[in-house]
């Protein structure tokens, strides 16, 4: 089990490397439309009737996200102002989340409902697990497992949300003529690498949960 956790951790590091590498590579390739990420985001939002959703710049790199509470697509400055394949790919992906929100996409709705609970349990679970291991208290370990399982479930539910947003982004970019056939490869590279980070994160969390479950049952047998 330790090997699987280590492998998932290695995959996570490699995925982060791939994300940055692909983004930097395709950030140097201008999109044929020569529109910025902000312009593409605004275009897709308007064409889908999401006029009230704002597009704003945010500091940092790869800090892009959709805020469902404020109804804002926030794009990192390289994406917001950039007019590269990488910029318009990331911008379209975040708009994909806004469209999911509009359509009440099931996995996204569930993730939003889980967030307050996960935000609480993910902070408590480590203390329960570590305390249970140090004190040899199976009841604390068991409670920690239950609390940690919410975080793992959240990670797993995030996968279809992210994959669906990327799928929507690619289809919209093609159907609305935002990219050409020659540009699809770059879009797939950027979005595919980003999706891999979520897969790695989910695997690592799942393997950690299984490890604690095994510890719990081994202690119970003893």
Write the layout of secondary structure elements.
Elements: H1 2-26, H2 37-47, E1 54-58, E2 65-67, E3 72-76, H3 77-81, H4 85-102, H5 106-135, H6 138-175, H7 184-221
Parallel strand pairs: 1-3
Antiparallel strand pairs: 2-3
Describe the protein's architecture and organization.
The chain is mainly alpha-helical. It has one domain. It contains 7 helices and 3 strands, in the order H-H-E-E-E-H-H-H-H-H. It has a 3-stranded mixed beta sheet. Strand 2 and strand 3 (72-76) form a beta hairpin. Helix 4 crosses helix 7 and helix 6 (138-175) runs antiparallel to helix 7 (184-221). The mean pLDDT is 91. The chain crosses the membrane at residues 117-135, 141-163, 195-217. GO terms for molecular function: peptidase activity. InterPro entries: Zn_peptidase_2. One of its GO terms (biological process) is proteolysis.
